[in-house]
Here is the input.
Amino acid sequence: MSQQLENCDREINHLQSELNKGLHELKLKYRWLIAQFIQERAAKQQSDRQNKSLQTCQNLFKKAQRKLNSLQCENQLLRQENVYLRNNTKMLRV
Here is the structure.
């Protein structure tokens, strides 16, 4: 009977040791997964910031393009007005 108890104790100790090893492996894998998650989240946040910055630059560029177009149109109108005024001035001199 005591032999059987000793065998059972050894088996329990062996199983407990395997359980502890398994738990240790799980903890290591869990920590690795958390580290991976943190790295990926940081990379995503950086990417989001860069995308936001890029979007801001694109918006500024579009705004500058609209302003340039507006100024070009205004310049064209002023040139036409200038030609008109020169022609009128020439007619008044004659």
Observations:
- The two ends are 138 Å apart (CA to CA).
- Residues 2-93 form the longest helix (92 residues).
- The chain has a mean pLDDT of 94.
